[in-house]
Amino acid sequence: MSASTHAPGRVIQATRPLNTGRNGEMRPTALIFLMLLWLSLFIAFAVLITLLITIFVTGQNKLTWNLVTNFPSADPEEAGARPAILGSVWAIGTTAVMTLPLGIAAAVHLEEFADRKRWFNKFVELNVQNLAAVPSIVYGLLALAFLSMLGVTNKNIVIGGAFALTLLILPVIIIATREALRAVPREIRDGSLALGATQWQTTWRQVLPASVPGIATGSILALSRALGEAAPLLVLGALVYITFDPNGLLSGYTTLPIQIFNWTGRPQEGFHELAGATSLLLLAVLILMNALAIFIRNKFQKRW
């Protein structure tokens, strides 16, 4: 134990290091917690690697151009996922068109223009935060009830599925956009207003361009989640077996997760291999979308 002298005849002992004391990081309980944390991370990572290897081993033989170009068939040797691929493109594209303008506009209003002291705005913010954690099947039921109220009899159409997916990811996009707007320093707004710009001009010309990386990242990740959803679409009666290409918003459709669900329920081993190959295809698309989000964030992100 070291000591230092501050006055004649007076010796003050140095403080004991925090990391070895009673409240330090080397306490047994802290070490146990750290070990359990690393153990849980290792188990999750091992399960993920095992699942990926299993899917790859199962579906590698079916990962050919026939999977992309052929229609579903009763013969697993001739079956493909072409309608599911096109259906996913239609569903996600329509979802993006419906969700992004509405979600970004709502976030801009709540963050830049809304009076946070009013009870109505507080109520909206609370509900947006809560809706982001609602299970996806609930949004399928909500979309089903809404379409039934409108008198729509055939609910397994592209616009119906896109509506359910819009309800699913809209709160996520609003929250992500608001976080991106908050990351813009207040000084940017104050400087623009001081130069005579209106609040709308400041938001449109300064705040929004500066927050594009965060908005784009959150939007792409939200669309990635929608791409992998099957539960809300199954509630709406999405087709699991079609032999035609979707060609419009009122067309019947299927998606990659639904096609995987259909093939995994078949008893033939060939369909299980097709499900594994389609899972690899879906996983590749999701990885590309996430990589795009990371690229946009790193390329255009500004450090204030």
> What is the overall number of helices?
12
Structural class: mainly alpha
Shape: globular
Quote the average pLDDT: 86
Tell how many strands the DSSP assignment holds. 2
C-alpha termini separation: 44 Å
User: Uncertain spans, ≥5 residues at pLDDT below 50?
Assistant: 1-7, 14-21
> Largest sheet, described in full?
2 strands, antiparallel
User: Beta-strand percentage?
Assistant: under 5%
How helical, in percent, are the residues?
Answer: 55-70%
Order of helices and strands: EEHHHHHHHHHHHH
How much is the radius of gyration in Å? 26 Å
Subcellular location: Cell membrane
Domain ABC transmembrane type-1: 85-293
Family: Belongs to the binding-protein-dependent transport system permease family. CysTW subfamily.
Transmembrane segments: 31-57, 89-110, 131-151, 157-176, 226-244, 274-296
Write up this protein:
The chain is mainly alpha-helical and 304 residues long. Helices cover 67% and strands 3% of the residues. Strand 1 and strand 2 form a beta hairpin. Helix 3 packs parallel to helix 6. The radius of gyration is 26 Å and the shape is globular. The model is unreliable at 1-7 and 14-21 (pLDDT under 50). It comes from Microbacterium tenebrionis.
